[in-house]
Amino acid sequence: MARMVKMVKNLLLIFLLIITLYSRFVNLNWDRGWGFHPDENNLWGASRNVKLFSSLDPKFYAYGGFPVYLYSFLDSKVQARAVSALLQTGIIGLLFLTGRQLKGERAGFLAALMGIFSAGLIQASHFLTVESLIGFFSLLLVLGLVEVCETAHVDLKFRKLHMALAAGALGLGIGTKVSFVLFSLPLFGRSLFKRPGLFKKARPLLALVFAALIFLLTNPFILAKFKDVKSTLQYEANVAMGNLPVFYTRQFMGTIPGWFQAVHVFPFIMGWLFVPIFFIGVFVICFKESPCRTARRLLMVSAIAALLSFVPMWAKWTRYVVQVLPILILVAALGADWIWEKGKIGKAIVGLAIISFSPQFFSILKVYGSLDNRLVAADWAVANIPKNAKIFTEAMDLGIIPFNPVHGENITLFNFYELDEDNTGQKQAALDSLIKGSDYFISVSNRVYGNSLRLPDKFPASAGFYRQLFDGSLGYQRVAEFSSNIPSSLFPEETFQVFDHPTVLIYKNKLY
What we know:
Elements: H1 2-25, H2 38-49, H3 65-72, H4 77-102, H5 105-116, H6 119-125, H7 131-150, H8 156-176, H9 196-202, H10 204-218, H11 226-240, H12 259-264, H13 266-270, H14 274-287, H15 293-308, H16 318-322, H17 325-340, H18 344-355, H19 358-368, H20 373-384, E1 391-394, H21 404-407, E2 411-414, H22 426-437, E3 440-443, H23 447-454, H24 460-471, E4 476-482, H25 494-498, E5 504-509
Parallel strand pairs: 1-2, 1-3
Antiparallel strand pairs: 3-5, 4-5
Helix pairs in contact: 1-4, 2-3, 4-5, 4-6, 4-7, 4-17, 5-17, 7-8, 7-15, 8-10, 14-17, 15-17, 17-18, 23-24
């Protein structure tokens, strides 16, 4: 019987490993090289500016130098995405190791299971952005500090080794994105621990100096280009805090920080029961006695650092959550483990929580297992739209670029974001001229019309255009729609529907 149980357990682990690898690595060339994600393009372009040891200035400062230098060794975006996929696979292993150290093998398994089926972490695997790096380094930091707590009875050199690991992760994290500096908080949370002498012996101040050195090594241009870096960081901070309105943050107008993520982000990257289980995990950490009480409190400080990195922000993108999601998963895993111990009902609740991941999990696999809608639409256009047809479309959306090889000379970009800001009437006149003089209109995502129709009082002109377009009164008829057939309600935060599975709509002028 014991042999049978062991065999089933091993088969389950193999099955989960296959799912992990498949979901992270499937179709990394999903866009066939067109580059629809601006953050990807910026990071990849910066890495092309770098020539190690001769030209270290990436000329792009929204992120740190570490990912730029890392990608500079690679030859393609697909290889860079493979790095993200590899890191996300590593995150699953770190979730298990850290959860096991905090509570036991079951808690580690539950943490890993949540990570495996997270649609948010799977999406991050398919982009060469910094989310996977931040998530990996944050877990490595927590694991190192947990080991410092749990090896208090062991030789001092082990604690120093683990503190060095944590400091290294902190330095690389800040070298990737400066907001990671929030994760220095756990190093100095001694007042929260029952054994402050433990951290004193591990020399957190020295660890911070080590982290700073790693940051400088991965950002050698920081002093020479300090003004440029400062200016870029101020711009990014103003956008994130809502002090600088830009077209790509319109979806956050009229939303509440914290509540937006709870309703529009977490349920769709982690399942509907994740948030309540997370708060149960907070309760367990704060009020339940445990042999790992010190390490658990340290995890709570890390979770606070994670929450501070996105909850106060006016800009509430999924990626802000995903980059610190592994830390939050650990907290939820402790909550799920506590619920599991409550008998059959507890086990059923935890099982239901895992099952609640499935709609988003299978939907995101469907996205990356299929040809991108924009590519399918472009192929349709080649076969069905005459080469000399006049087309107009929305500016500021890279989804139109696959249409360019055949129809690019006759495509006009119109900036709908400026339509409602123009008091001279020139933009409206230009739009009216395009409506009359064009043969087709193509919408490559819902980024413009989604926000215009949601806030018609704020954007009356663009809302009016799309209302007339959709009801047919504009004089255009829908002739094609390319969709993943995934309800928008399943992934309501805009970036899920703009970057990797947008719905493409093609309208034909009825007079053409």
